[in-house]
Amino acid sequence: MAFKRLNMFYENKKQETTEIGSAGLETTASSARAVKVVVGESGNKALFCYLAVWSIYRHGNGMFRTSDLEADLCTHFVYAYLGINETTYEIASIDDWGDNKHENVGMVAKVVDLKKENPNLKVLVSVGGWSEGSIKFSTIAASAGKRRKFIDSVFNYLKAKNLDGIEIAWLIPTMRGGTDEDKANFVTLLEVRLKLS
């Protein structure tokens, strides 16, 4: 299926509504969240909203908590970021307090709780990001055993946390310590994930 992708950043909670390009979609402005709109061939629209763990550490108007989220604002919430344990090659928390302990349960659980208000909402986690770099992904993608270990840990994490999916934010294959084989290995990593799902 072909998709049109539109990316935008917006600020200032609930103060303005912005029309996004020719897709004719509207979103309510919110506090420094990234939004990705995906329009499928069938015309179905998906609005992906990203929530970064570090948003709870900002001061003043820049602070953004899970209690600021509205369950019906987006079709998908993506929680960023989880990382990779470089010894076990399993999915791992980068910020254990933010992910698992903030407000006694952690931000991941708080975002998943939004499904109680909106049963159609999908909640995903993003693994990687700039801080995680490329070396861990390169190592995992190059080895069948490490790919399997990583993927098994992802499925176990998704099931344990009642999550709907994952985004792989490998920044950037073949660079930042990666290898020339990263492009092909990244495809293999994703193909293996599809076969196991």
Automatic annotation (TrEMBL):
Gene3D superfamilies named in the record: Glycosidases
Family matches, as Pfam families: Glyco_hydro_18
Domain of life of the organism encoding this protein: Eukaryota
SUPFAM superfamilies: (Trans)glycosidases (SSF51445)
Domain GH18: 45-197
InterPro entries, A to Z: GH (IPR017853), Glyco_hydro18_cat (IPR001223), Glycosyl_Hydrlase_18 (IPR050314)
The protein, known as: GH18 domain-containing protein
Protein source organism: Ranatra chinensis
